[in-house]
Design a protein that fits this description.
alpha/beta; Rossmann fold; five-stranded parallel sheet; two-stranded antiparallel sheet; repeat; NPHP3-like_N; Nephrocystin 3-like N-terminal domain-containing protein; P-loop_NTPase
Length: 654
């Protein structure tokens, strides 16, 4: 048995057991009064179609003024999001696709048609590379639904081995074949694309557009189940089953011959490990496997690309509904060499000898993201100490070929630029990708200062040409590195600039014009403060921020959140013995007598733990009525080093 270890997990080869033959008959709900499927995935003839573009396509005049046409404005240019058709559904609750898409409210930049420069991952296979892998996947998708072929393929591997590029190429190929039902590219730190709240509805909307015979079925389901789209009411698995799996399963009885002739439809899911709702994803995988086991003739395939996270691995690795593809074993120096040849030709790099290219190929070691970052570091302008590309090549070849060494080397070149870590932290930990203008507001600097930092990081950060386009990381592995205390060292990202910036901008929300990042702050200020208080125990940094933030808390948070916020502050200060922080809270008017999360008070904590310095601070703060009994009073009174005892009236122990 050959084992391949990746991401800390050992994957062994496993024999594939043929699925049991099952018989299947159409249920009565399969016979819906719709136009029979003609085998084409779009289903509408040109005379009846205005535009069904899910991403960047052109907008026809017929659709331009349609009441349900919407534009999703992403900085750097408006991506048109249009959903319309003049074809009416016979007997269905929704008149046309435009009416159906509105309640689904899909994420506009989640599919393979997204603008990858502003909605990562920005990955695509170099021409002439990954041929064996692409051929294997296409053959699997094309396999007959009459045979016991797995409905799911899991392409797995470590960060940077090219999973997203494979997913992008396969999605584009089958879209060209009119057999792509849907695609979804998860990406951490991208808002709705790293959670499940709008996942099923986004896939369903694409299925309705790309598999037209399924659209009336989806519409009927929405009409019959009003709470289906509410994540708090209906599970992700139920949403997927009702809106995706069952509609496509039902239409096979309308077009079985066409399905056999053209092959099943495909759904591409990339970066499943980057979705933060791990329990929902695990349950969805289990339900999909169960569904396909009971409905083996469903004309649908799922291509899942991800790293080897336990909640995914445990549910996919041993299932007979899943075929496995270890991408690490499919990556060769030949692919890297071919990609380098393309870059060398495009850049006209006559100085790079064949021997240099061979050494670089070997050094890269099969990692496409490592190769891409090295290329940008070598051949594109940035902070390089004035070194010529030939000299930079020597530095690259001397570098250890791993992400940590690569990222550390690039970050070290920029670390002395003013506001470097604040800008990097904001980009890394922001819940949504933010444009330069918003980053500048949150950090409290000018846009030119932000650009100076970004220009030095061009090889690992996608730097836009304007102040309104979101700044994104080239790869999720950089966020992982910057968020890990054990790996990042001095480059560890902090929630401090986001927590502080949000509080200050919210306090100034009444100013005209209001801050551009105001909406972001309204949504995420509390979350950033909670993480800052819970995770970052640097008392010096904390104390520096405390004085100015406390003055804003009443205007930033609601009454309930103010109390919670102050409680968190007191508990953190007490835990770190940061008595200067208590003085700042006292001066800011914070009620130091409020109950803490465990029901105790600050006075009880310091007396029971015999922390006299904290006890004195609370006394000097005019702590409130001290003639009431409190736990620990007897011990503190008997302590031989106790001072200022004369400030106390007689007390009894509780």
């Amino acid at each position: 048995m050959n084992d391949s270890t990746m991401d800390g997990m050992t994957l062994g080869a496993v024999e594939r057991h043929p699925a049991r033959e099952q018989t299947e008959t159409p249920d009565s709900s399969g016979f819906i009064h719709i136009t029979p499927w003609d085998g084409d995935s779009d289903g509408f003839d040109e005379a009846n179609v205005a535009s069904l573009d899910m991403g960047e396509g052109s907008m026809s005049p017929a659709v331009q003024h349609h009441p349900f046409t919407r534009r999703s404005s992403l900085a750097g240019g408006a991506l048109t999001k249009t959903y319309a058709s003049q074809r009416r559904f016979s007997g269905a609750p929704f008149a046309n696709i435009a009416d159906l898409i509105v309640p689904l409210d899909p994420i506009p930049d989640a599919s393979h048609t997204r603008d990858r420069t502003v909605s990562p991952p920005n990955s695509k296979c170099f021409a002439g590379t990954r041929k064996p892998v692409l051929k294997k996947i296409r053959s699997w998708v094309d396999s007959s639904v009459l045979l016991s072929n797995p409905h799911i393929m899991w392409v797995y591997g470590y960060a940077g081995c090219g999973k997203s590029a494979i997913a992008q190429d396969i999605a584009e190929y089958f879209a060209g074949q009119k057999r792509l039902a849907a695609s979804f590219f998860f990406f951490r730190g991208s808002g709705d694309r790293n959670k499940t709240s709008r996942f099923a509805r986004t896939i369903a909307s694409q299925v309705a557009v790309n598999v037209s015979a399924a659209a009336p079925i989806i519409g009927s389901v929405l009409d019959a189940k009003p709470g289906l789209l509410e994540a708090k009411v209906t599970s992700l698995s139920a949403q997927f089953r009702h809106l995706v799996l069952e509609p496509i399963n039902k239409i096979k009885w309308n077009g079985l011959a066409a399905s056999l002739r053209h092959g099943p439809f495909l759904v591409v899911l990339d970066g499943l490990d980057e979705c933060e709702d791990k329990a929902e994803i695990a349950a969805l995988i289990e339900d999909m496997v169960e569904y396909f086991s009971k409905n083996p003739r469903t004309p649908l395939r799922f291509l899942i690309c991800s790293r080897v996270d336990s909640h995914i691995h445990e549910r996919l690795y041993l299932s007979n509904q899943v075929t496995l593809l270890d991408l690490v074993k499919q990556t060769s120096d030949k692919d890297i060499s071919t990609a380098l040849d393309i870059v060398i030709s495009d850049q006209k790099l006559s100085w790079l000898s064949r021997d240099d290219k061979d050494r670089l190929t070997t050094h890269i070691g099969g990692s496409f993201i490592f190769m891409t970052t090295v290329i940008k570091s070598l051949f594109e302008p940035g902070i390089d100490g004035g070194l010529a590309p030939v000299a930079r090549l020597a530095e690259v070849l001397a570098m250890r070929p791993d992400f940590d060494s690569l990222y550390t080397s690039i970050l070290m070149q920029a670390q002395d630029i003013p506001h470097f870590l604040d800008v990097v932290s904001t980009i890394t930990l922001a819940r949504l990708a933010l444009p330069i203008a918003h980053i500048a507001e949150l950090v409290g600097i000018g846009t030119a200062d932000v650009v100076e930092v970004l220009a030095s990081l061009h090889s690992i950060v996608q730097v836009p040409d304007d102040d309104r386009t979101p700044v994104t990381l080239w790869h999720t592995s950089l966020r992982d590195f910057l968020s890990s205390p054990d790996r990042a060292g001095p480059f560890l990202a902090s929630h401090r600039p986001l927590a502080s910036g949000c509080a200050i901008l919210l306090a100034n929300a009444h100013h005209e014009p209001p801050p551009m990042a105001l909406k972001y702050c309204q949504h995420f200020a509390v979350e950033h403060w909670r993480k800052f208080l819970a995770v970052e125990g640097d008392t010096d940094t904390f104390t520096t921020e405390l004085d100015r933030i406390c003055r804003h808390s009443e205007r930033v948070f609601t009454n309930e959140l103010v109390a919670e916020f102050h409680t968190h502050l007191i508990e953190m200060i007490m835990g770190a013995d940061n008595w200067k922080g208590l003085i700042i809270l006292r001066n800011a008017g914070v009620n130091l007598a409020m109950p803490l999360s465990d029901g105790s008070t600050a006075l009880e904590v310091v007396t029971l733990s015999r922390k006299l310095e904290g006890f004195h601070v609370l006394l000097q703060a005019n702590y409130g009525v001290l003639d009431q009994p409190f736990r620990g009073a007897h011990d503190i009174l008997e302590h031989p080093s106790a001072a200022n005892i004369d400030l106390l009236t007689p007390v009894t122990q509780m």
